[in-house]
């Protein structure tokens, strides 16, 4: 960023707790402006997301294609693969890495932000007394009842971020 854009500021980061408190759609991170991470996706009214037998979260306020901001014309190239494959023990589908172009989707989820990325959770993670507590506070329990702040960051954004391919398959057209 310093070489390409002449950026002179500190290391940029997303302040989970601030956006949880101020509201995702009110944040300059997700407001769809030129320097944001783009806006929400088109509302799709999706059903709740089952992340395991004891964890179900509602979909957020979007769910469809991003229509504003710098990522609105970008394309994801790998298809959706449910994160439950990570805990199921099943092999990935045969088409897991096939080219499957589609728009980038976003499903901003205030419930997830308020529940797992609020200031209390961030401070508890920073103050974790040992490695086991730090691991739990960061990542929760896959298939369990907590996302942890890292996993919740993915589900706060929603859309393709909850696929096992995450965001590594983006190209610009």
Short characterization:
The chain contains 7 helices and 7 strands. With 173 residues, it is α+β, with helices and mostly antiparallel strands.
Q: What can you see in these coordinates?
A:
The chain is α+β, with helices and mostly antiparallel strands and 173 residues long. It has one domain (10-172): di-copper center containing domain from catechol oxidase. It is 28% helix and 16% strand. The chain has seven helices and seven strands. It has helices at residues 2-5, 16-22, 85-88, 110-116, 119-126, 131-139, 148-157, and strands at 41-43, 49-52, 55-57, 63-66, 74-78, 99-103, 170-172. Helix 2 packs antiparallel against helix 5 (119-126), helix 4 (110-116) runs antiparallel to helix 7 and helix 5 (119-126) runs antiparallel to helix 6 (131-139). A hairpin with a 2-residue loop joins strand 2 and strand 3 (55-57). The strands form three sheets. A three-stranded antiparallel beta sheet has the order 6-5-7, with no helix packed on it. A two-stranded antiparallel sheet has the order 1-4. A two-stranded antiparallel ribbon has the order 2-3. The relative contact order is 0.20.
Summarize the SSE layout with pairings:
Layout: H1 2-5, H2 16-22, E1 41-43, E2 49-52, E3 55-57, E4 63-66, E5 74-78, H3 85-88, E6 99-103, H4 110-116, H5 119-126, H6 131-139, H7 148-157, E7 170-172
Antiparallel strand pairs: 1-4, 2-3, 5-6, 5-7
Helix pairs in contact: 2-5, 4-7, 5-6, 6-7
